[in-house]
Design goal:
homotetramer; alpha+beta; six-stranded mixed beta sheet; four-stranded mixed beta sheet; 14 strands; 50% helix; 14% strand
Chain lengths: 490, 490, 490, 490
Amino acid sequence: MAIKTVDEYRERISKLKPRLFIGGKKVEKLADHPITKGVVEATAKVYELTLDPQYDDIMTATSHLTGETISRSLHIHQSTQDLEKRLEMARLSSQKLGTCNYRCPGNEMLPGLAATTWEIDKDKGTEYYKRFTEYLKHAQKEDLVVSGSVTDTKGDRSKRPLDQDPDSYVHVVEKRSDGIIVSGAKQHTTAGYAADENLILPGLSCRRGEEDYALAFAVPNGSEGITYIGQYNPYSVEREYADDIRYVGNPIYGQRETCIIVLDRVFVPWERVFMCGEIEYTQKFIRRFAKTHRMNCGGACKVGFMDLIIGATQLIAEYNGISKASHIVDKITRMIKLNNTSLACAIAAAHMGNEEPLGSGVFMPDEAMSNLAKLDTNDGFWEVIALAGDIAGGIAVTMPGEMELENPEIGEYVSKYLKSAVSAKKRMRIARFIQNWVAGLHGVATYQGAGPSQNEMLILYRTTDLEEKKRMAEELANMTSREFYNSLKT
Amino acid sequence: MAIKTVDEYRERISKLKPRLFIGGKKVEKLADHPITKGVVEATAKVYELTLDPQYDDIMTATSHLTGETISRSLHIHQSTQDLEKRLEMARLSSQKLGTCNYRCPGNEMLPGLAATTWEIDKDKGTEYYKRFTEYLKHAQKEDLVVSGSVTDTKGDRSKRPLDQDPDSYVHVVEKRSDGIIVSGAKQHTTAGYAADENLILPGLSCRRGEEDYALAFAVPNGSEGITYIGQYNPYSVEREYADDIRYVGNPIYGQRETCIIVLDRVFVPWERVFMCGEIEYTQKFIRRFAKTHRMNCGGACKVGFMDLIIGATQLIAEYNGISKASHIVDKITRMIKLNNTSLACAIAAAHMGNEEPLGSGVFMPDEAMSNLAKLDTNDGFWEVIALAGDIAGGIAVTMPGEMELENPEIGEYVSKYLKSAVSAKKRMRIARFIQNWVAGLHGVATYQGAGPSQNEMLILYRTTDLEEKKRMAEELANMTSREFYNSLKT
Amino acid sequence: MAIKTVDEYRERISKLKPRLFIGGKKVEKLADHPITKGVVEATAKVYELTLDPQYDDIMTATSHLTGETISRSLHIHQSTQDLEKRLEMARLSSQKLGTCNYRCPGNEMLPGLAATTWEIDKDKGTEYYKRFTEYLKHAQKEDLVVSGSVTDTKGDRSKRPLDQDPDSYVHVVEKRSDGIIVSGAKQHTTAGYAADENLILPGLSCRRGEEDYALAFAVPNGSEGITYIGQYNPYSVEREYADDIRYVGNPIYGQRETCIIVLDRVFVPWERVFMCGEIEYTQKFIRRFAKTHRMNCGGACKVGFMDLIIGATQLIAEYNGISKASHIVDKITRMIKLNNTSLACAIAAAHMGNEEPLGSGVFMPDEAMSNLAKLDTNDGFWEVIALAGDIAGGIAVTMPGEMELENPEIGEYVSKYLKSAVSAKKRMRIARFIQNWVAGLHGVATYQGAGPSQNEMLILYRTTDLEEKKRMAEELANMTSREFYNSLKT
Amino acid sequence: MAIKTVDEYRERISKLKPRLFIGGKKVEKLADHPITKGVVEATAKVYELTLDPQYDDIMTATSHLTGETISRSLHIHQSTQDLEKRLEMARLSSQKLGTCNYRCPGNEMLPGLAATTWEIDKDKGTEYYKRFTEYLKHAQKEDLVVSGSVTDTKGDRSKRPLDQDPDSYVHVVEKRSDGIIVSGAKQHTTAGYAADENLILPGLSCRRGEEDYALAFAVPNGSEGITYIGQYNPYSVEREYADDIRYVGNPIYGQRETCIIVLDRVFVPWERVFMCGEIEYTQKFIRRFAKTHRMNCGGACKVGFMDLIIGATQLIAEYNGISKASHIVDKITRMIKLNNTSLACAIAAAHMGNEEPLGSGVFMPDEAMSNLAKLDTNDGFWEVIALAGDIAGGIAVTMPGEMELENPEIGEYVSKYLKSAVSAKKRMRIARFIQNWVAGLHGVATYQGAGPSQNEMLILYRTTDLEEKKRMAEELANMTSREFYNSLKT
């Protein structure tokens, strides 16, 4: 079995030396820094769940390359059942972490990369798929954390890469016999600095002339020329300066931490290059990645988050003594409805999945349904947090810190005046947990993660066969008969 | 193969003699009366589709009783695949008919009835399931049209049956050695008068003392004591007086036609009685029926309707020359989104289905997902028709009749001033088809069919495990640790 | 006082001889034909309300031309108070008629026409305003019904008038010394055939070369060359063939009746021509008309309709015995919320109104607010009818005809099985009234009347000062300081 | 003129010595502490605006007590014009501060208190109004900052005050000849610690037996027995530890700061007691306060916030080079629509206001419209921030800190990779400003401020005359005629 233990993971992570900056300072030890520590803990938890027998079916899979039991985080879906297990993994890890499963985004790129490299090789006689397969075997064998980056920094979105600073999109700056030199930066990368490997994949549907931008490769963490710049926001500062992390919203695992990965003339040997110049495959890769990502991250992951939010909201309603009021029951039911709708779309996406391309052995979710999962989640998640905020009430944003309970001067006041049907401590703890969702980063992150709503709308429109629907209507309206046709001529 | 041809069906229907009144007059021949004719045509079309090889997989099934190929309209789901085929049948027939598949509602009661009679027999040693099985074999063999009625007329909804006119709900008024005498009436029955058989099933979750109301049975069309009273509305009158039905909205199949079935001391022999007094099984039956119905009628059937509406709306947009405008594309995409959401829920309901009760062999859709399918459809369908109305514009309600095209005095004016990018005839035809949806009965019928939204909300709330969600939140908020527990005591 | 009595109105209408076709047949007497009779009755009711002392303040005004008391239907707003009274008139007449106040659309064009002709005369030395003033004095003195038509038939919306059949938009075909000859047709005209006068006004924002289409004029009903073609739909047929109109939805006043007005080389003398060739004023007129119309028809008129729908829905809930259920109260409250939101926007539009152009004495509603009134109403009205349909339930579409109560064969059944907390007759009567809204023409008509939502969106965007909002944000984000400016340079 | 300068205000605030704790520590100097400093700056800005001639009309009023020019923050509305000016003040201060105008909540209680004390005196011969008038004269003369507190801490919401810890609601614990002793605590008080005076008013509609809770009074900041406990959350920590406040979201004025005010046996002399035991007036006061608050805080204040959010979102769209894309224009327009809807309701509330009680001279907004303003804002504000998040994209939550621009090791990377159509600095600055809204406290605060949505729903239902609407429907459905009445009897 090619699955590593938590301790092995911690050991490995302790050796990473990424060049990482957060909040104006260099981060020295990932496992100690108050912000990156949460990333390490979350990832460790995923390793723990993977070896937990009760989640065996969800968290592990059988490698199609080696036949060994591997982490599902490194698996390429071989069936619709695999797609379903994959979404269950996304939901489960969200329920357990309340933040990103940092092995997830990288994993979502693997099937699209497998499918597309297979197709390029088949069409062009290249050997990308062969390289990728070797690479994947290595990752599976070592049970590595692989991050994935797609979104370029883009600069002015109204301009193509060659019409502005060419580094606005990651690209080849030099080709050598032993490999390539690349420059540019990717943004929104979930904790790339804490991964063993960074996958860098095309985020732009390239046109002729943009061959240098049609580029997929992998680099190990800390390769020369790579700098990571971490996000920094009120939730970062809270964690940075917390005397006691029990008093912050998601105490152990924190927020979803992302970074910009700057690639400043980074060398990549050819065996780690999986696409280089094949512009006509960039959009194929992007749509394959997107549909996988939108089923999981857009759909199932947020279902897990909504499970937590619903649970916490029901708790605060009970704590406040209002959980039986009809308007509270209605609102909780509405939250359930929105959550289940996202789940239904993700399940439909998996269940309607197909091998793509035929012969590759790679299974992909249904494109319309996976895009729909993301689209329904965009609106649904915002409404769920709105309802949670409405039910929790002002306390979710106006509450003092839990440390005041131990302040000898006012602890008794806080204890007395923040108690409800339960003690102040319980109430404050869950209110802070809710704050994390209703006044935090996850709302916007839900829109951003897996792409903005307009992208899903476009795909939905394009994947729909309007001609067929038109024909159905014409047939029923009796417009397809010879008689009708003749009547038009007169 | 136990499947009858269209001609056999037409032959059979021509012999039915229901006591039926519509619009103040008695209907003599179902196949000739302008309103009931549409029902006959729609049902005939279903027989036609059943024998059409291209729909074989969807429209037929293998009887678990006889092993014969039968119409899926008389099948009891034996697997989740059966549930999926069943919802495909609902969508297909909606696409082909633009109105009710009149074999559908009855079919949706059969699995719930099979499951519940099986369970009663198992629990109580009765022989309802045996009777039902015999009855079903007969129906399958003759390939009968079986209507189903659940909704009582109810009188004052704030009162139980025994606190008001006892006939407000169908009940036993006398038990005899050879059978029972029943009275009461069911409403919203889709074309019971044109079915070979009428299933009458409990619509009330009965309490102690209401044993006479816990009642399930079948009666043949036209049994003594049965009177059908058909719906009557502007769409009825339009069809009643149309000189040329090509000029009405859904020319061949018309609106969904329903009726009240009055049972005035109707005799039912014991072999057709499938429940009689077992109050504790009424709610079980209702929930089983409801979840089947909400997946199909609530979900998939309306998906078929929305396919038609989207197709027609795209046509009128093209006819008007505006189909490329960004706001039109956005609205069409929104319609697609709503449609696919309903479909996803129905698919999830089928795919997550289970045998229920264990050992019965009957498969039921997932209860939360099927209720969700209906709930999402309620709002989605209304929004779809709103968008269709918005895109089609005023012509959908202010248009003159198509017969004016042939009026020698003004035909040329109509032809000249109602043409657009296409001829006036095409534009008027599709506008009338759209009118049928956006200014017709289907909007409200979508809320009513398969039950009002509040019912689905209740089920959704009840089927959700809030305790589990609470535990997840507590765990992440670090409220399940011994340390936290201890801190509460101080 | 220049206000005519109902009898005077009926007398006058009895003399009209429009060339009118409905449902394939020529209409001979407006007051007798079952469809046009409703229009006459509705208009008669408006005359009656105008002379009813309790509505004096709302229904009448003082002419700024003659100082006489006139019907507000012929008044030009002289103040924001006038705008407010105007919207109260719209709401009141909707409450009383449940359909169009047929004097309303014409009235909504008068202020825009007054303002624009005044402006053209001022800018160009023409005498349109003078002609218009004489014309208005005449209309006020005789208390005439003036219909208004703006929407051309348009043909292919992707083409300008000169790129297709030139008659797709009303235009001048010949200029003579004594007047002009015009051709084309207007659609969606509310009952133009039953008005004394037809105003024909520009519906296209004309460009250079389209001078012949920049055209405003008035013609008397029945002028030579004018043909009216009435709308025809299920609600038309219902009324056409009803034995007893008490049994239809809005028994006395019916649906909103519209027609196409065909102008086939109609002669208009110069004194009735109010714009002819001044392309740069067409958009000005349209925006002025639109903002007036959107406040009244888009906003207040539908508020009156929603008042009726809410009332009827509350009645059916009481009749069914469910009016105290929390979900019913919630839904009724939601309907109230939507209704009041439309009202608030209309009131804000009136209250924020201004004299436009300065010096003209004509008051116009605030453009953003009046467009908003329509926009909020579009969505709100649909949701209100959805909620009414949800609460009323299936009976709103599956009910038999009320005439069945008098059918000796089944009257007692109907009476017994359709009673609830009240008699079947009351319940059926109000259910039919609700059907009229939830399964009728008003839903789409609400989108269409006063223009599709996209138009209001465009105006809202254009009337908003985004630069000012940007400046506010920049100032608070400390981006307007010299210090920030300097920091950018480094 | 009784208006103080900013310097006078700063001087006065520097002398306040509240017993205040934030984040586990005692706050010593309000003007220096990084969190409370923002409150002082915001209040100072309000003093500045009050003396700014261009806002004269909005920010000042004429005292009805003294005839002097006073700050509108201490004015009692004497007309609907005053109500309109009041909402303009709310919008203006939100635009200028991007957070709470800390003089606002107290001001919103003054008219309700004036009206209710006037009414009690009239009904009961007490002298509350006289005391209140003297108190108000003093506040106006000294131009004091008066905070207002209504919301008790409540404990278990399912219990009345006497069924749980009696201090869950503020109440009288002892009556003396010279005054009363009160205990309890109020929560959600906007910056009570930085006000000269704290108004403490009833938040519970009291029943018989709860006389001790029917209590209104004023106490000076820092009275013996008063402790303030400030809110503490990620945004607090960010500000607490910021090296450079320019890099936080709303740099100068910060978040809305609230606190719990604990009253531990506080003495209040009789001349500062405005209600004591008159239970039947508690609900009257609450509804008066609520409708004032819902017009301003629920409506207009958030309109000002939405102005800022729309401006910032338009900026980021321009910075990213996407502001002309049709879906961006649509979303911006949608934001405008939601904003204007809130504004329209607030304007209607003011314009439809009335003197209440008659004779008191106090003007109150229309109750339905003001509640509607809050209700529309609840949903509208959440959707506006959702749209802002959608348009701004991931950068709003994944961005590094602006200080990185000055980090010599990576400043150039940040500058290069975060630039777009504008420099990284501009883009980061506005993105941080947006973060403040889309990932901050304002979303939930909007629900909480002025009360949860269910409260407004209840008022809307209660203030609507459903009987009148029912009558309208019955009349049109021809159910009020003698003929119909007679037909029921047969």
